[in-house]
Amino acid sequence: MEIMQQGKYEIIPSIIAKDQAELNDRIEKVSKYKKYIQLDIMDGVFVKNKSLMFNFKIPGQFKTEAHLMVVDPRAWIKKNSEKVNTVIVHKESPYFNECIQLSKAKKKKVGIALNPETSIKELATIQEKIDKVLIMAVHPGDYGNRFLPQMTKKIKELRHRFPDADIEVDGGVNDKTIKKLYLAGANKFIVGSFLQKSRDIEKSIEKLETALNNFPKEGL
Fold first, then answer.
1. Which of 6, 15, 44, 163 could make a disulfide contact with 50, Cβ separation 3.0–4.6 Å?
2. 218 belongs to a structural domain
3. Largest CA distance in the chain
4. How far apart are CA 76 and CA 122, in angstroms?
């Protein structure tokens, strides 16, 4: 597997929504500060909760990636891929390989997501060029699930194997954990509850960026 060249670090808000009104509200909260968002697509089967399982519209101008936490992402990709720039498919899906090919046929960037229990050794069987790898640092399915500190070891292993890769981490990212995740080798940070439950999103984003800027950018 070949992963495209690494970009600089980036904070990416994640969005969970049960209907269009909630989607609009949650995007509005971050719209002044970030123009790249992750949409959490959940079917209630692959994970326990449901999110964005309706014919949604994205308000405003954003670059978007869809994190497909669904058992069979094929139908979603066929119907909705034009709404997003990047499609992220879980390696645990039984339709993984087909979904990667389908996303590429739709001219989308492609990412691979790994649940906490899935080893990075699973990436060895992938032959296609991939734009990013997403490491889940929580058991997926909801805002605020418990951060799993042992995932930093997984990120270190992945960074060692792919020194120029874009490595995203999703789950439990806040102004304390982001330091550990950055030093482990992650450079893209998916932030959910820390922003959505914040009373002052601007100040919360400043805390994240301050934590990152207090570390040297070399040596990952």
1. 44
2. no
3. 44
4. 24
Tokens at 182, concatenated: 């950055």
Round to whole Å and give the CA distance between 187 and 144: 21
> What CATH number corresponds to the domain at position 59?
3.20.20.70
- Residue 220 in domain: no
Q: What is the DSSP letter of 190?
A: E
Side chain identity at 202, as an amino acid letter?
E
What are the tens digits of pLDDT across the range 38-86? 999 999 999 999 999 999 999 988 999 999 999 999 999 999 999 999 9
Domain holding 53, by residue range, is 2-213
Between the CA of residue 176 and those of 155, 172, 181, 220, what are the distances in Å?
17, 10, 9, 19
| Total domains, the chain | 1
pLDDT at 6: 63
Q: Which runs of consecutive H residues, i.e. helices, occur in 72-176? A: 74-80, 96-105, 151-161
Residues 6+ apart with CB under 8 A from 151: 116, 135, 136, 137, 169
Neighbours of 115 (CB within 10 A): 16
**Looking at the domain assignment, is residue 182 inside a domain?**
yes
Chain Cα centroid distance, residue 158:
16
- Joined tokens for residue 192: 């959910």
User: Distance between CA 89 and CA 128 in Å, rounded?
Assistant: 13
pLDDT tens digits, 87-132? 999 999 999 999 999 999 999 999 999 999 999 999 988 878 899 9
DSSP-derived 3-state class of residue 3 = strand
